[in-house]
Hints:
By secondary structure, this protein is an all-beta fold.
Amino acid sequence: MTPAILYKVGGLGALLVVCQPASPTTGGARAQVATLHEARAAHTATPLPSGQVLLVGGMDGSGGGLASVELFDPTDNSVHELGSLSERRVSHTATLLADGRVLVAGGYNGEYLRSVEVFDPTTRRFSPAGSLLEGRSGHTATPLPDGRVLFVGGVGSGWTFLRSAELYDPGTGRSEAVDSMSVPRESHTSTLLEDGRVLVVGGHSGRRENMEVYASAEIFSPESRRFEPAGTLGIPRHKHDAVELADGRVLIIGGADRSDRVHYETTEVYDPRTATFEPGPSMAHQRYKIAGTSVLLPSGDLLVTAGAEVAELLDFEGWAFREVPGRFPAAYRFAAAALLPGGDVLVTGGYSDSNENTAGIWRFPGR
């Protein structure tokens, strides 16, 4: 029988029961290995070339934005404060550039932000790096093979849902408009394909009774600078996740319907060769508000970490999910995850169903 260990979870007054894996390939959840200096959700976690992970901004416990920045070091599971951004940001993006710097763009702090900052890991400082054409929050940012970054959709000034997209050049700090999508999208996903195009899936526009959740998908071509239709999901989804698999297909994971009360355990697979979606393997747990928390492992398997109290591993060869031993204290939403050197996976922050942020940092063995 696999032994269990009890660990106190900092700041939550609860105990986390973690089952030690039976073998190194079990993918078991380790205990909380560290604690953030500030509990946060809707932040970003970006792996640096050094193997460290940059944790930026997010939402504090009262719903406001954070300017604070932290650095996780996987060699000793330590967390270091790195000062602050020039502006508080929640629902921003952070993109690793080809030169090892990190581009932090947009977000919300009472205003929809156009400003862009870049983090230099050699100086450990942020500096201004131009601006977006439109203030954006809840958008996506996708680094392209030529070094530019594609920003898509989100919400802008006046709570306007955006169809627009723009290409940012980190060499000049300038952004230029490209063709717009067919519909405005927030809570969508954007995934770089093997051929350099970008697949945009699902999302929504509108609020409450006026909300529309999309089953549609579009593909952006950097050559034509246009979006084209790219098939239709089996069901409309938003607040889902999407990951390119080892064979070049894209797995669409979980999400919710327009009521936000129906959450999905189902997945769908997009094949860029046929521009079609087909059903994928189902998870044991329903999950939403999980964008960026599913991580492709060096083995080709996929670890889905957030949105439920139990993580799940997709065995690529067996094409089925199985639960990973161990539990989180809550089904954290808007957490952030990152792949560490050697294949481990880091999961940080998020908020519970009772809207309580966590400062927890967990580490999953990836091998």
